[in-house]
Each structure stands twice: as C-alpha cells, then as structure tokens.
Amino acid sequence: MAGTGEALEVWIDQDLCTGDGICAQYAPEVFELDIDGLAYVKGEDDELRQQPGETVPVPLTLLKDVVDSVKDCPGDCIHVRRAADGVEVYGPDAD
Q1: Beta carbons of 9 and 56 less than 8 angstroms apart
Q2: Does the N-terminal or the C-terminal CB of the chain have fewer CB atoms within 10 Å?
Q3: Which residues contact 51 (CB under 8 A, 6 or more apart)?
Q4: Rg for the chain (alpha carbons), in Å?
Q5: What is the C-alpha separation between 77 and 55, in angstroms, rounded?
Q6: Around 63, how many Cα atoms within 13 Å sit in the side-chain half-sphere?
C-alpha cells in the first residue's frame, strides 16, 4: 500500500466504465452512477466530476474502500495516483 501520509486522488476513465456500480457500493462517498449509467467521482460538495480525467482527493478514511473498488472493477477503469507527482499507485497503470 502507498504511504498513508501521501495525498492521493482518484479518477475514472468513463470510456472503459461498464456501469456495474461496484465502486459506488464500496465507496458511495467517492463514486456515483450518473443518469448515463456510468460511474463518476464526486467531491466533498457531492457534485460529480464529469470532465474526462477530473480527479477528487481520496479521503484517508476511505482509502481501503477505494482500493477495493479498483481491484474489483470489471472495467479496470479506476485510477488512484499520488497528488504530488501524478504517479498511479492503484489501477491499471500502477506498477
């Protein structure tokens, strides 16, 4: 797991999203299905971030739920990266 002191951010590639909603079940505070049937990240203001590649911070208290979402996502479309340098730590592009 990434260092717990690191600020992380998450985004979803809607082009790969299958709309299963597993992410929203794991972490409804971070993920939500929109009317188009695809999942989006949402900020602390509860507003969906619908621009491609738009990120929201990963609350430390929800990190495990977000990581479980990444692992179980059938679309392999959830990306978690370090905010400081943009390196993906969980998701399809992580080492």
Answers
A1: yes
A2: C
A3: none
A4: 12
A5: 13
A6: 15
